[in-house]
Each structure stands twice: as C-alpha cells, then as structure tokens.
C-alpha cells in the first residue's frame, strides 16, 4: 500500500468514529509524509492541529494505522507542513474519497426531522457539538443518558453561563433517543413555559390536562430551571411531576446557569432531587475548542477561513460560543459586502468591538495560586497540598473560586490544577465562597484586593 492508500483507510475509519465537525476540523489537510519500518511522519496544516492530534487522537491513530497495515508502529511524529510539499500524491480531505455516500455539504440538513414535532432544533445534535476540555464531562453525561435513559444519570443537571451549549446538549439527547426509538415521547420546554402553562391550567380548570401532558412522557427536557426559584406553586407542581416521572423510570434533564445549591429560593426537597443524579458544568471554551468551533461554523456557512484568521478571532473572542459565532457572522457579512477576501488587517475593525469587551490582561492558574498564597502568607505547596487546616483550606477555596469566576475553568480542570482533587471539591468551594460573599463585607474587600494584585501583576 502507498502512503496515500494507508492514510485514506485511516481517514475512513476515523470518519466512522468521530463527529463530522471534529473530523473536518482535525483531519482535514493531513496525510502521511513518511512511513518506514514502523516510523510514521504525519503532516498537518498548523500547530493547533498538531497539538490536538498529539493530545487527543495519538493512541487511536497508532492503533488504526497498525490495523490497516498489520504492522506495529514504533513512533509517530506530527509535522507542520503542507501536503503540497510532499512528493506523495496530495492527501487532503477534498481529494480523498471516504466511506460516506455521496458526501453532502456540512451545512445541509434533511428536510424533515422527527424532533421538530417536539420543538427540537435540527442543528442541535451530538454530531454538531464540538467537544473540548470545558464541556467534555457534560457531553459524556448527555451521551450516557441517551444510551441508557432513566438509568445512567437521572436526573441530569447541566449548568453553565450563557451561550455555552446547554440547550444544544439537552436537545441532542432528544434527537438521539428519537433516532434509536422513533416512538419516544419527548417534552422540551423552558421553565418559564412550564410555569405559564401551569398557571393557565389552574385558571382554566384544566389541571388534569396539564398533568397528563407533563407526566406521560419518556423524556422531559427543562431549560433554565433556575427561574422556578421563589415560585412556590410552580415548585410544588414540578416536585410532583418530577417524582412521578422518576418513579416510572423516565428521564429528566435540566439546564441552569448555576448549580442547584446556588439557585435562590429553591425548596430543599427540589434541590436534593436535582442532585440525585449527575451535576455537570460547562465552562467557557478554551482556545483549541474555539478554533474547532470556528472551523466547523465557517465550513457550515461555506465561508472557509485561513488558520491565521481563525486564530485571530479565537484569541479575541473568549467569552462564549454565542459571541464567537456572532463575531464570525459579522466578519463574513463585512467581507461579502465589500467583496474582499479576509485578511488579518481587514478583520481588525470588525473585531475591535469584541476587544473592548475585556481589557484586563489574561492571567494563568499558577499566577492565581501565587497571588492568593502571597495575600494569605501561606506556601504555594500548602495550597496545592492535602492539609485541611482552616488557615490553608480557606485560601485554597478562594483559589478555586477565582479560577471559576475569573478564568472560567471547569470544575474538573480546577480540581486537576489544585493537586488532582475531585471536581465536587471545587464545586463545593465555589458555591461556599459565593454564598459567603452575600453577607461578608471583609471577604468582599479581600477578594477585591486579591483581584487588584492579580491583574496588576499580570499586566
């Protein structure tokens, strides 16, 4: 087999393993530059792809090449180099036939989706969800629920900031369950709609119809559940709805902008039930994930961009996926209107408004640890250590709070950063500090001073 033929077979295998956006993003314009006595050189288009393949797909690539060739692989090197510079036949996604038949553009969708009758957006599927460090736990939990509804995690509670993909995951579960069983009964609503329909049913004397609608389903998806806080009658009705579905083994999935413990005026009995299954958070996407999202979206919109342009956007817009896509749409519209090709210079004016949204210097997790350790006059190793002494535990909790609030890190990432702790420890620390801040003026002042030091040092 030629190098071209080997890599063609490898790509065909990966196309069946990974989602189409991930396949397009990370395997496009890649190929084998050299294959000799168990040593392989794979050329990739840029450093981001190189890093991602090394960290995420390295073992799978080795296993797949070994399966295709029937020979052991001793070493794989990833090299940033265009396939056009390789004497072998050009090996890009556009020239390599794959196992799909025939290929359709990534943006096209079937005219009818079974999920449409349940209010599910046809674009919100697992195939179109880009997985990164900040959302991999929530994504894995959502897939587990779709695989074993009512068994794996019931309820599944997903929370995170605005525009990070919570609704996408909720609806992806619905689409997946419908694909596997078209007779699945699904109800997808916001908590506001649940409240409005409940109030309307009481006023119109149609309480039984309301109960039948919400309790005779296989999957209940509730978006923005935090808004039932403080609504006593709505909470009472949802409590009984939840119990009925849970006792029947039906799946409940909820999204929120905060964990159950932080939802104000939420009854304890509901809070405890929300915590029965799995609580998974979604953090702001890291640079690699933002690049993957931009690559996927630009392909979807049939407006592919060069890696340096994607990098400029991803570096500037760091808040959430919604703003990231907004920046991309703005750049596409501007250049289509001007009928010019995007360059690093031409996108500067478009990205200027996004740059103004955050002028503070970026800080690292280690800088945060150092600043807090210095403020409380404790050793860095003690913060990273296992001691539970109050004089050490409290600064450690402050670090966890800041990593979550300022750096937007996921709880698993915070736990890893602080000595390999469990993500629930980070979650508890964040909730504890946020609750104490409501009434503790000294803590507020201390945090303000720490942040002032942190950002002035980073500058």
From TrEMBL:
Protein residues bound to ATP: 163, 165-167
Superkingdom per UniProt: Bacteria
Keywords, in A-Z order: ATP-binding, Cytoplasm, DNA replication, DNA-binding, Lipid-binding, Nucleotide-binding
Record carries keyword Lipid metabolism: no
Region (Domain III, AAA+ region): 119-335
Subcellular location: Cytoplasm
InterPro entries documented for this protein: AAA+_ATPase, Chromosome_initiator_DnaA, Chromosome_initiator_DnaA-like, DnaA_C, DnaA_dom, DnaA_N_dom, DnaA_N_sf, P-loop_NTPase
GO CC entries: cytoplasm; plasma membrane
GO molecular function: ATP binding; DNA replication origin binding; lipid binding
Region of interest called Domain IV, binds dsDNA, as start-end residue ranges on this chain: 336-459
Residue ranges occupied by any Chromosomal replication initiator DnaA C-terminal domain in the UniProt entry: 364-433
Gene Ontology terms describing biological process: DNA replication initiation; regulation of DNA replication
Short name of one Pfam family: Bac_DnaA_C
Positions of the AAA+ ATPase domain: 152-283
Region annotated Domain I, interacts with DnaA modulators, chain positions: 1-90
SUPFAM superfamilies associated with the record: P-loop containing nucleoside triphosphate hydrolases (SSF52540), TrpR-like (SSF48295)
The keyword Transit peptide appears for this protein: no
Role played: Plays an essential role in the initiation and regulation of chromosomal replication. ATP-DnaA binds to the origin of replication (oriC) to initiate formation of the DNA replication initiation complex once per cell cycle. Binds the DnaA box (a 9 base pair repeat at the origin) and separates the double-stranded (ds)DNA. Forms a right-handed helical filament on oriC DNA; dsDNA binds to the exterior of the filament while single-stranded (ss)DNA is stabiized in the filament's interior.
Family indicated by similarity: Belongs to the DnaA family.
PANTHER family in the record: CHROMOSOMAL REPLICATION INITIATOR PROTEIN DNAA (PTHR30050)
Subunit structure: Oligomerizes as a right-handed, spiral filament on DNA at oriC.
Comment text on domains: Domain I is involved in oligomerization and binding regulators, domain II is flexibile and of varying length in different bacteria, domain III forms the AAA+ region, while domain IV binds dsDNA.
UniProt-recorded name of the protein: Chromosomal replication initiator protein DnaA
Species per Swiss-Prot/TrEMBL record: Candidatus Magasanikbacteria bacterium CG_4_9_14_0_2_um_filter_42_11
